[in-house]
Amino acid sequence: MSVVRERVRVFVRLSSAVAAVLALVPSAAWAQTYSVELQPHTYQPLPIGGGTKTEHPYPSQFGGVGYAPYQMVINLPFTVPFFGVDYDTVTVMGNGSVQFGVGTFTNSTTDAAMDNRVIPSTSGTYHNFVAVWRDKVVCQGAGGPLATQYLGQPGSRQLVIEWNNCRRYASSGEFTAQLWLTENDPTIEVHYGFLGTSAQNWVAGMGIENFDGTDGTPGLGLDGTVCTPNCTPADFPAGHRLIYASGPSVSLDSVDVVPQPVNIGYTADVSALVTNNRGKDLDNVA
Predict the structure, then answer these.
(1) End-to-end CA distance of the chain
(2) What are the phi and psi torsion angles at 91 (to 5°)?
(3) Strands 174-182 and 54-56
(4) What is the C-alpha R_g of the chain?
(5) What is the pLDDT along the chain (286 residues), one digit of tens a residue?
């Protein structure tokens, strides 16, 4: 999704005391929480558009759970806003998820380390993530390796992270999916390919969560309902994508009050010039 920038003039009628407060806070900004939508989508494996994909094989780069290294830091050539914070670093974790910033995952194969819980949750210390298909995931051997590719030109670049036929550690199950991150855009896309043809044994989670677990949005299974934290193979949204979109990120540039001066207790016409920096379009403004 491209960055959407809007400048609108909003007219309201309010007390002069409130107008005075508004006049003191130009350049204030706020961001709304994320919503999620499930859409049919044809999966495109890497490489895309004749580009070059980069593979990250075990053991030199990324092994996944149970095989060191179990996380991989990617320094982005652009920033991605996530819950109101701009990041230029992401960490691919050994559990089918990506954490913004430097990851805090540990090398363990226990269910507890997979952090299978509701989204959002303030429990534990593992937050600030996109859970693509979060369980015991290993990208090596018959499946994988993990792959990445950059697309687009400066200003609208994208990073695609692909789990290609990655498997469930110490059990049965294989999945293919991609995470799409876009420059200067808070929209998160997860494209789902397919589950393997062998027996599947997943207890997975999908969704996104902010830096402390106080906000987040669970993903949707194939039937359009929330299955996290216990998504089964039947919930895997093969041939679909999940789009996590945030509300407008609005900056208050200036406020004009007419007439001036105004007396306490009277009303005045207030026009506010605001900029939608990124996210969804602004609605219901005039």
Answers:
(1) 25
(2) -125, 120
(3) unpaired
(4) 22
(5) 333 334 444 444 555 444 444 444 444 444 458 999 999 999 999 999 988 999 998 888 888 877 778 889 999 999 999 999 999 999 998 889 999 998 766 555 555 567 789 999 998 778 999 999 999 888 887 678 999 999 999 999 999 999 999 998 888 899 999 999 999 999 999 999 999 888 999 999 999 999 999 999 999 999 999 999 999 999 999 999 999 999 765 556 677 777 777 666 667 677 767 655 555 555 555 5
pTM of the model: 0.79
Contact status, residue 28 vs residue 251, Cβ threshold 8 Å: yes
Q: What is the identity of the amino acid at 222? A: L
Q: Which residue has the tokens 């207890």?
A: 203
Q: Is 155 left (phi over 0), alpha (psi -120 to 50) or beta?
A: left
Closest CA relative to residue 124, chosen from 205, 232, 4, 27: 205
Residues 6 or more apart in contact with residue 53 via CB below 8 angstroms: 46, 47, 147, 148, 149, 162
Place of tokens 């989508």: 41
